[in-house]
Amino acid sequence: MVSKSVLASYVLGRSGLGTLLRHTGGHRGFVALNYHRIGYPAECEFDRGVFSATPEAFERQLEFLKKECDVILPADIKDLPRWGRGNYAMITFDDGYRDNHDIALPLLRAANLKAVFFIATGFMDRTRLSWWDEIAWMVRTSARQFIGPTAMLPACLTLGEPDRQQAIDSLLAICRHRTPDLVDRFLDVMAEATGSGRAPASLAQEVWMNWDMVRNLHEAGMVVGGHTVHHPILSFLTRPEQAREITGCARAVEQHLKVPMRVFSYPRGKPDAFNCDTRACLADANVEYAFSYYGGMNLPAPFDRYDVRRVSVDAGAPLEHFEAMVTLPRIFA
Ligand SMILES: [Zn+2]
Q: What's the pTM?
């Protein structure tokens, strides 16, 4: 379903009113855009919900940013109170998908733009898929028409088309609010219920970057930040567990890139995905900025350096909506 915000931006773009509004001198503060994957979701056997744009759409978005905005990096944030009005945007990616290196990096280079890549360092060992990709893969490769109910799955689900995507969405919703050990048990149950088994490690190599690729990002002038080791929702963990996820991530970044981890993004990123303990652990690790993921723009004041707001870039939304988010963020971000 098309959201009201997408519809309004589309009307604005078509009517020419958007162009007029965009040239009213911009705004104070900046918009941080968040991407996950660049590619073609319809061809993917993993979670299609994490695609942010096709390569063609991403290229058009970069063209727009280059023409209409100042694209900034975290190091520029300290100057925020001194900036005048304008269209300021930051490009960020989460998780560490391989297409970030293979597709996004060449396009960023061609546009001469820089971005921030937040990586879950455990994924860079490429031994396993994320739970969301593994569930989608189990369902898409299953030969079974129906599964459930089981102890961990309250209702029967239809895996065959046209209901397959709906089954995947239901299973992802079950996992979203569970602790990592429960998610892992759920994956074992689903492996058996679907008959697909657990995903082989070879698949993880197709999906994630390795450290050579992450180094290429760094050497191309991109900023590499942390996103934990195992991608848990941090607020579900005790403070020592959170500290291990944050310092373990920082240590891996430092070991492989020889630079400290100064920026971080919270897995899931909703307001309840991080807490006071998370902030204390980030301060202990000398992290300068941590990014959330529930919409909104960033004003010079009040500015919370451990809750830098980001907006989602969604595959399928028209370019007009992207343009409106960046240039009219008070309404569309
Ligand atoms: Zn993530």
A: 0.92
